[in-house]
């Protein structure tokens, strides 16, 4: 008669075996899914507003020179008067801030 082998078994060895079993099952599942899912996705389309931004950026450099058209004499005088009025207002506000004007 063959002698029976006696194995010493404790809780930690059961936990180790269970962990190894779970690892192997997950590995098999990943391999199985990997073989089935060889479908490649098409890349996403860029959003519509991305095209609009590119078009506006391309249009801006050509629009800048048109804005730099020389002003007529009348427009230059109007601009100068506006600038002088704003500078006078700024001086008044500075005096008010210092308390020189009540």
From TrEMBL:
Q: Which UniProt keywords apply?
A: Coiled coil
Tree of life domain:
Eukaryota
Q: Which GO terms describe its cellular component?
A: nucleus
Look up keyword Coiled coil and say if it applies: yes
Query: Which residue ranges are recorded for the region named Disordered?
Result: 32-64
Question: InterPro entries attached here?
Answer: CCDC174-like (IPR025066)
Q: What is this protein's name?
A: Uncharacterized protein
Species: Desmophyllum pertusum
């Amino acid at each position: 008669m063959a002698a029976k082998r006696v194995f010493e078994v404790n809780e930690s060895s059961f936990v180790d075996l269970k962990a190894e079993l779970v690892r192997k099952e997950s590995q098999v599942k990943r391999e199985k899914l990997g073989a089935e899912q060889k479908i490649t996705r098409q890349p996403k389309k860029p959003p519509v507003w991305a095209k609009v931004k590119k078009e506006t950026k391309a249009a801006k450099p050509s629009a800048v020179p048109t804005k730099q058209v020389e002003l007529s004499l009348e427009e230059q005088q109007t601009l100068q008067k506006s600038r002088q009025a704003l500078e006078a207002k700024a001086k008044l506000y500075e005096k008010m801030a210092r308390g020189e004007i009540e």
